[in-house]
Known about the structure:
Elements: H1 10-26, E1 31-34, H2 37-44, E2 56-60, E3 65-70, H3 74-79, E4 85-89, H4 98-106, E5 111-116, H5 121-130, E6 134-139, H6 141-145, H7 151-181, H8 188-206, E7 217-223, E8 244-253, E9 256-266, H9 271-290, H10 297-310, E10 322-324, E11 331-335, E12 348-351, E13 354-357, E14 361-364, E15 367-371, E16 376-378, E17 390-391
Parallel strand pairs: 1-5, 3-4, 5-6, 9-17
Antiparallel strand pairs: 1-2, 2-3, 7-8, 8-9, 10-11, 12-15, 13-14, 15-16
Helix pairs in contact: 4-5, 7-8, 9-10
Amino acid sequence: MTSFSPRLGRGFFEAVQDRVRTRATEAGLDAVLTDDPEDVAYLTGFFHHPGERPVAVWLDTDGRCFLLLPELEREHAQIQHAVAELVSYPEYPGVTPPFSVLAGAVGLGRRRAGHTTSMSYSRLHAAGTALSTVELVPTDLVTVARYVKHPVEIALHQEAARITDLMLSSGAWLVAEAVATGGQFPSEAELAAHVTKVGTSTMYAEHDDVIVVSPLAGGLVYAGENSVYPHGLPSGYRLRPGDTFQLSLGCAVGGRFVEGERTFVLGEPSVDQRRYHDTVRRAQEVGGQAIKPGAECRSANAVCLEVIREAGLGRFLRHRQGHGIGLGMHEPPWLEDGDATLLEPGMIVSNEPGIYVPGHAGYRISDSMLVTEGGSRPLTSFPRSLDDCVIPV
């Protein structure tokens, strides 16, 4: 069996750096500064656990890229073949502040640099103090550059989708196995631990260089009334016959995420359970058809959720259709009424309408959708219909 490599080559990072440089020049900027861990990974290939020690990228429009990091991370960056000039400082807070070390490397000429909008006040203040001759202005330039995925990124997402499907299958199998053997039904926490192990063990068995991000694999597992909370956490509740339960799962390959969510029924569905599930399934199908090049995110959201409203279940809506997905499990653009972003080929967004019935359960079906030239297609493929998501008792 050929091992899958999730580590991208130097050519990818040179291409994305050039993409960002072009956008920066068009925006009247001389450089871009970001300390967002996802931006750092996107621009240089360096993945790290963020903490109090600053790690940041300075990307000049003149062709240079600097990676500021603590000395204790230097070898880590070298092992990952980070595509940047490494600028390290001894320790934090340090006798010489970290951003002063960066200023010494890039110089203090009169320049205009865009900083990521997610920089904290303290980080931005420290950068501004050290880079005293640089005009720092907010920009979402790197975030927007990340919207459209390169083909090599899409391959990583596709592999993450394959593993997510395996996790969904393994979760359903664990419950079905309890039925078949007459054993105790798993708890939400046991189900969550099981699917997480399947996801991570598959990567370590089949990939030659696992890039660890948080979360690497796993998700939310909830049953019955616990599933009424869209982002509820797995508990010790043990599944029972008649329960509606959700497996809201995903993983990251090469730092690129995919999510896949299915709603199951343990035993013969009631009339209400079938109505709720079928309505969400139809909304997801219509919503997927609305995800296509040239469509506004807000229009896809409106079309998707209108199916639920027309079915008389609008009072059970609690969230939008979906969101962008990439180096972040949740990232822009947002499939919501307030986002007019136009969808483009190469974008990946979630399609996850849901309803949440107080005192009963929640119903949500999600796929990560790749926008194509002619429309969109789901990366995850686990069956979605209720008949395929019933576990007979």
